[in-house]
Amino acid sequence: MLESLLDIAASAARRGDRHGLRPVDLSAMVSRICELYADSAEDSGHDFSWSVAPGVVFEGEESQLGQLVANLLDNALKYAPAGSMVRLTLAPGPELTVADDGPGVPEADREKIFERFHRSANVRRDAPGSGLGLALARAIAERHDLTIILAPSEKGARFVVKEQTA
């Protein structure tokens, strides 16, 4: 938990700082992460699939961007029950979407879930987690001039990460 808090603070402090950013092949990175998650998803009974556009390159810190993707997948696999669908797409832009058909997030929590230590009202109190994953994902996104939102969806949750618009 302390490490996550430090990561959030470090990312927030470096927001807009382009120092240390390098071209990252997001297509290759996201594909590797999805391949790593495929076995876990199968073991937990999730229908996990991904679609990654080739050649999507973005200037950033690969380890942080990987953490952002991993946090979104962790949440989808943690909160969507077995038998649920989890989908990841990466399109040019870049635009990354992680969607599931689980219980979703109540309207009152849709923005609060990005705050440190906040856990949605529909999360079982005994469910693992500290309420830091999405706060860290947002801090990483903002550090890279990206935005992360919980987009409207008919069922479940759909997180979208893309470049901020002016």
Overview of this protein structure:
The protein is α+β, with helices and mostly antiparallel strands. The protein is 36% helix and 23% strand. It is built from 4 helices and 7 strands, in the order H-E-H-E-E-H-E-E-H-E-E. It has a 5-stranded mixed β-sheet with strand order 2-4-5-7-6, covered by helices on one side. It has a two-stranded antiparallel sheet with strand order 1-3. Helix 1 (2-13) runs parallel beside helix 4, helix 2 runs parallel beside helix 3 and helix 3 runs antiparallel to helix 4 (133-143).
Descriptors for this entry?
166 residues, alpha+beta
Give me a quick take on this structure:
This protein has helices at 2-13, 26-43, 62-79, 133-143; strands at 22-25, 47-52, 57-60, 85-91, 95-100, 146-151, 158-163.
Number of strands: 7
Poorly predicted tracts of residues: none
Termini, distance in Å?
34 Å
Strand content: 15-25%
- Biggest sheet character: 5 strands, mixed
Form type: globular
Number of helices: 4
Spatial order of strands in the largest sheet: 2-4-5-7-6
Helix percentage: 25-40%
Overall residue-averaged pLDDT value: 82
Q: Which structural category do the helix and sheet elements fall into? A: alpha+beta
- What's the Cα radius of gyration? 15 Å
Element-level helix/strand string: HEHEEHEEHEE
